[in-house]
Amino acid sequence: MMNRSRRGAARVSIAWMIVVLIAFFAALAMIFVFDGERTKAQNQRVTAEAARAEAETRYDAQREKVREISEVLGYYDHEVVSAESVPGDATEGMDQFKDGFGIADPSIVDFQIMSRRAVVEFNKKNDEIRNLQQTVATLQAEIEVKSQTLTSTVADKDTEIRSLTQQLNDANQAAATRAAELESEVASVRSTLSDTEGTLTRARAETDTAYRGAREREAEFVTRLENVTRKLEWQREPERPDGKILNVSEELGLAWINLGKKNRLYAGMRFAVVDGRPGDETMKAWCEVLEVNDDMSEVALLDIRDKFDPPTQGDIIYNPIYDPTGLRNAVLSGRFSGTYNENELRAVLEGINIHVQEKLDKTTDYLIVGAELYVDEEGEPYEEPLQPSDLSEYKEAEAMGVRIVPIKLVTDYFRKSQN
Fold first, then answer.
1. In which domain, by residue range, is 332 found?
2. Is residue 355 part of a domain?
3. Does residue 345 contact residue 336 with C-beta atoms inside 8 Å?
4. Which of 272, 301, 319 is the C-terminal boundary of a domain?
5. How many structural domains comprise the chain?
6. Does residue 238 have a cis bond before it (omega within 30 degrees)?
7. pTM for the whole thing?
8. 275 and 315 Cβ atoms separated by less than 8 Å
9. ∠ CA 88-90-93 to the nearest 5 degrees?
């Protein structure tokens, strides 16, 4: 049993030795393989470095050649050693050359062609200059000949002028003698005329003074008369109503008035409703025009003051600015915004036959006053808002008796259309 165990152990030892030998030879073989690959890689690196050195040499040669071309061509940065000509700048320079010589030749595409063309153009210009110089020399010779001719002509003219001058002097002397005789006669006539003119001038001055005084008194009287007439004209409200209520629907809050299209009525216009009984001026409500027909209009009853005394048939209506027949003039003063800007206000006024003037005159009926002004006519802001009452046209309107209407009165009686 013991011998059998020893033989088995000997076989195991031999097997391990064989395995170790195989592993050794395998490792040795791998070392040879890796050493060959490393040698191959080293050879490739050497080859690559040689190729790189050759490429750098060719690159340096090309850069030097480009530098030499740039130095000849120009259009490069002289402060940079390796700078190259800029193609765009070179092309621009070529275009400037063409423009300078007036050449529109598409065949000039490089500086070699351009330099040859430049020589041709330069020689052509030199030929033109020589031709011009010859022309100038010819003209100078002609000028010299004409100058000599002119000198001779001037000398002849001077002789003739001296002769004519002598004749003129003799004539002037004779004329002077005759003029002295005539002046003596004229002085006598002027003395008599001066006395007559003095008397006439004094008479005219007195007449003009009397005439101006009469005209001034007449103008003052006419102005006063116009102012009084204007003030009396506006005493009619509300005694002279603009219309009256024809019928009322309390359930619908509507009424119908005796004004229509022929009375220059439009939707949105408002009237104050006043008791129609004689002597009673109680304001009952407002009415606003809703629909306009030819001879009558439908209105809405607003702001009824007393529900126990509502508007009824026969009550009168009035609007202090509305006039169905007359043509009136107005001037706008101040700032207009809010309900109506200036353009909208002009349209409303034109709709009721009120013409908007640019400035006050004797035909102006209203001065419609807006809000205060924050900037002047040139757009510069005021230190403090300027009130319309401080404007010169406001004071002028007061002096002329023009009715001053605040913008609120217009917005109360004329609503903006909702269309």
1. 322-414
2. yes
3. yes
4. 319
5. 2
6. yes
7. 0.41
8. yes
9. 110
In terms of domains, do 383 and 358 share one? Answer: yes
Tens-digit pLDDT profile for residues 68-97: 777 676 777 776 656 677 888 778 877 887
Range among 21-25, 147-151, 171-175, 307-311 with highest mean pLDDT value: 307-311
* Among 300, 234, 284, 290, CA closest to 265: 290
Query: Do 410 and 335 share a domain, yes or no?
Result: yes
Same domain, 309 and 334: no
Contacts of 69 (CB under 8 A, 6+ apart): 85
Closest CA to 281 of 336, 233, 318, 229: 318
396 & 340 share domain: yes
pLDDT of residue 232: 41
Select from 287, 319, 351 the last residue of a domain: 319
Q: How many CA atoms within 13 Å lie on the side-chain side of 75? A: 14
Across 333-369, b (16+ Cβ under 10 Å) vs e yields: bbbbeebbeeeebbebbeebebebeeebeeebbbbbb
Which amino acid, one-letter code, is at 205? A
Q: Which of 2-6, 8-12, 139-143, 340-344 has the lowest mean pLDDT?
A: 2-6
CATH code for position 251: 2.40.30
What is d(CA 222, CA 122) in angstroms, rounded to the nearest whole number? 90
Per the prediction, the chain carries an average pLDDT of 81
Question: What single letter denotes the amino acid at residue 370?
Answer: G
Q: How far apart are CA 394 and CA 331, in angstroms?
A: 10
**Same-domain pairing of 337 and 266:** no
Token output for 385: 């808002």
